[in-house]
Design a protein that fits this description.
The strands form five sheets. Strands 6, 7, 8, 10, 11, 12, 15, 20 and 21 form a nine-stranded antiparallel β-sheet that branches. The chain has three domains: 127 residues, no CATH class; 165 residues, no CATH class; 239 residues. β20 and β21 form a beta hairpin. The N and C termini lie far apart (51 Å). The protein is an alpha+beta fold.
Length: 562
């Protein structure tokens, strides 16, 4: 492994062209999740968070040539904080220099946690290098961030902000003699542990993005706190987290097996790969060490995989992972995730989940000639993931029986921000099994009521058993199966409607559900006998020998309210 200080210095040198000496800020490529910022159609912005990461990295190199620049960046960003207590946004920053807080829609209160943590870390590691006036200004800035964090008081179900807020308040309270903040930070960390330990997983179950941030920030907190109780809580939370990561790592494809409650990219990006390589000390190996895309915020973080889980990142085995991830274990609200891993592939499903575009409700990774291919199930409204469709399943190792039903008052493109109020306008509605990654040599054959996909000698069979939708009833080919080329590569689509835009009144529908199965194996069409499907009042019961040991699958016949 290359010496980490050299990785940091190489990273900082690679960022030189992005520094703006006039503004004393770092330029970043503009990206937007579609909310908070009102900026559009621009290539570059000056990010407050990225600039603070850069400043801390400059200081961490301990090279004299970078010290003045780092201090100028810190001074600049600290001055962009809202310090007026009469404002709701007191203690936070805007995302970008180009967009003041008043222009954001709405401002993001998480920036008290993100920016506060960077300033605080810089103070703790390098405060002796600050001019006294700047040092006092930054101490005040972090104090304001602590006030904003405590006032907002997010719950333990918001994992990463719960951790970051605990870090800022606890470490600031310890280092600068503020007992109230220190006590609040420890209490916040304690509440997170108590909430998480019931299931031993975070709310954002098995999320490559959110789990990475949790590991990074918990590791920093563990390394910087002076409180033995806090270190113990961090150790327990980190051990739980690494157990999840190791349990879902698929060695043959080098992918993070599903299902994922929050996910932005279906194949691991370079940052995620580099994180795993650093934290596992090369057990999960993706890059030559000299070429590893290092992130400056990793330096001195102390993120390292728990030793008892390291072997999972190189061992080829077959295993079944079942995990209670949401709801109350003692009631019908309990929800489960299942992942089946073999040497060639992994298959993961939730037993109950919406189709928000950040979900991976049914996800398989397959080794195709030494490179990963993936299959992801989606439900699309005019080409975008439809949140008011619900996935329900029972997985038995390599076979999944699943259904789709609907709600009449859920989200459209987002689970909360655009509720449908009973009906939608649509020109296209379809269920899609999306294929991506390495699709060289992959064949897709349409068959009666479904399709068979061959990937690297493995057959994936998708079949519909019952389709009830709006005023029409029928089998899969009555609605139409399509094999399509997509941006990801290819797709198998069950088209429920495609034509002129028209209303779909889910609140008034008498029937709207799908029953299907998916199997992976060495033979095509390995679905076995048909399931037993029975009508029970306003729901449909799906039973089959494969799921006899589990509860039958129940679907709402008519769209319900949530």
């Amino acid at each position: 492994m290359m010496e980490e200080k050299q990785l940091l210095i190489s990273k900082i040198r690679s960022m030189e062209s992005r520094y703006n000496p006039q503004l004393h800020l770092l330029r970043s490529r503009f990206s937007s999740p579609g909310y908070h910022t009102t900026l559009t159609e621009r290539e570059w912005v000056h990010s407050t968070r990225d600039s603070l990461n850069y400043a801390l990295g400059l200081l961490d190199t301990e090279l004299k040539q970078y010290e003045q620049r780092a201090l100028e960046v810190i001074s600049r960003v600290a001055a962009l904080q809202d310090t007026d207590r009469s404002h709701d946004t007191f203690g936070i920053w805007s995302w970008f220099y180009e967009e003041p807080l008043k222009q954001m829609a709405p401002p993001d209160w998480n920036w008290a946690d993100f920016c506060g943590s960077k300033l605080l870390t810089a103070l703790c590691r390098h405060g002796h290098r600050f001019p006294e006036k700047l040092r006092q200004a930054v101490i005040s800035s972090v104090s304001y961030a602590c006030e904003a964090i405590q006032k907002r008081n997010v719950g333990p179900d918001y994992t990463n902000i719960a951790i970051l807020g605990a870090f800022v308040t606890l470490i600031y309270g310890e280092r600068f003699g503020h007992g109230e903040f220190a006590a609040y930070g420890l209490d916040r960390l304690t509440r997170l542990y108590e909430y998480t330990s019931r299931r031993e997983v975070f709310e954002e179950y098995n999320s490559p993005v959110y789990t990475y941030i949790a590991i990074l920030e918990l590791s920093k907190l563990r390394g910087m706190t002076r409180n033995a109780e806090a270190r113990g809580l961090c150790n327990k939370l980190l051990d739980m987290t690494w157990k999840t990561v190791a349990g879902h790592y698929h060695v043959d494809t080098k992918q993070w097996s599903g299902p994922h409650a929050r996910c932005y990219e279906t194949l691991l990006n370079d940052q995620s790969k580099a994180f795993l390589q650093i934290a596992t000390q090369g057990e999960a190996m993706f890059f030559p060490w000299a070429d590893l895309p290092y992130e400056e915020e990793w330096y001195l973080s102390g993120m390292v995989c728990s030793p008892q889980y390291l072997e999972a990142f190189s061992a080829l085995d077959t295993r079944l992972v079942t995990q209670w991830y949401q709801g109350d274990m003692a009631s019908s609200t309990a929800r489960w995730a299942t992942t089946y891993i073999t040497q060639q592939y992994s298959l993961g499903t939730f037993d109950h989940m919406d189709f928000w575009n950040q979900r991976r409700v049914l996800l398989a990774y397959v080794n195709n000639g030494g490179q990963p291919a993936y299959l992801r199930l989606r439900f699309l409204h005019d080409g975008y993931d439809y949140c008011s469709a619900y996935f329900k399943s029972r997985q038995q190792r390599d076979r999944v029986w699943f259904g789709i039903d609907f709600v009449s008052n859920g989200g459209d493109t987002h689970i909360n921000l655009d509720k449908i109020c009973g009906s939608i306008q649509a020109s296209d509605l379809r269920l899609r099994l999306e294929l991506g990654g390495n699709l060289e040599g992959v064949s897709i054959t349409q068959v009666r009521d479904g399709a068979v996909i061959e990937i690297g000698g493995l057959f994936v069979s998708l079949k519909s058993w019952l389709i009830l939708f709006a005023e029409t009833t029928g089998s899969g080919n009555s609605f139409g199966w399509e094999i399509a080329e997509t941006e990801s590569g290819a797709a198998v689509d069950l088209v429920l409607y495609s034509g002129p835009q028209k209303p779909f009144d889910f609140a008034g529908m008498n029937q709207a559900l799908l029953v299907l199965s998916l199997t992976l194996g060495m033979e095509p069409e390995a679905h076995g006998p048909a399931p037993v499907i029975e009508m029970e009042d306003n729901r449909v019961k799906v039973a089959h020998g494969d799921i006899a040991e589990q509860q039958p699958l129940y679907l709402n016949l008519r769209p319900a309210e949530i």
